[in-house]
């Protein structure tokens, strides 16, 4: 139950935010710009040369990861974190099918240019970080 709640909550939050940017919302400051960018690749636009194939490759990888995490009992042990991870990943994948690329909008440009990213990307990073921490903590015991 916790898995599905966090899974759907992350998709809902992420898609609502992205819809605002698709409707034209923008905001700029000295260091951060909130502006629409459609990313046809993955992080830092890598693999954009794969075009339409990328979404199918990512779909297959997501299914493989789901099966592995289910078999290893990770989803059961860490339901909320797993729900966040898969909700965010699926939300970005939905963008690829519905918009033609991932809807990104947070652009850091103070002192150095950084990648443009979105809420789902942050949730993926946090959930992976937590899973690594839980694994490391378990190994320490």
Topology:
Elements: H1 2-22, E1 27-28, E2 32-39, H2 53-71, H3 74-77, H4 79-98, E3 102-108, E4 116-117, H5 119-140
Antiparallel strand pairs: 1-2, 2-3, 3-4
Helix pairs in contact: 1-4, 2-4, 4-5
Short description:
The protein is α+β, with helices and mostly antiparallel strands.
Your description of this structure?
This protein is globular. Helices cover 61% and strands 13% of the residues. With 141 residues, it is of the alpha+beta class. It has a four-stranded antiparallel beta sheet. The chain has helices at residues 2-22, 53-71, 74-77, 79-98, 119-140; strands at residues 27-28, 32-39, 102-108, 116-117.
Looking at this protein, list some descriptive labels:
5 helices; alpha+beta; 141 residues; 4-stranded antiparallel β-sheet
Please state the structural category: alpha+beta
Query: What count of helical segments does DSSP give?
Result: 5
Helix content: 55-70%
Largest beta sheet: strand ordering:
1-2-3-4
Main beta sheet: strand number and arrangement? 4 strands, antiparallel
Straight-line N-to-C gap = 28 Å
Low-confidence stretches: none
* Rg computed from alpha carbons, rounded to a whole number of angstroms: 16 Å
Mean pLDDT: 93
Number of strands: 4
């Amino acid at each position: 139950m916790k898995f599905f709640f966090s899974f759907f909550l992350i998709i809902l939050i992420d898609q609502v935010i992205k819809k605002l940017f698709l409707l034209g919302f923008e905001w700029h400051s000295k260091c951060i710009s909130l502006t629409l960018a459609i990313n046809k690749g993955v992080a830092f636009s890598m693999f954009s040369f794969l075009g339409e194939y990328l979404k199918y490759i990512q779909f297959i990888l997501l299914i493989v990861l789901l099966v592995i995490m289910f078999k290893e009992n990770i989803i059961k042990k860490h339901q909320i974190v797993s729900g966040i991870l898969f909700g965010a990943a699926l939300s970005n994948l939905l963008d690829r099918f519905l918009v033609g690329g991932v809807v990104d909008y947070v652009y850091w440009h103070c002192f150095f240019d950084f990648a443009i990213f979105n809420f789902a990307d942050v949730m993926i990073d946090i959930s992976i970080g937590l899973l690594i921490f839980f694994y490391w903590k378990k190994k320490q015991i």
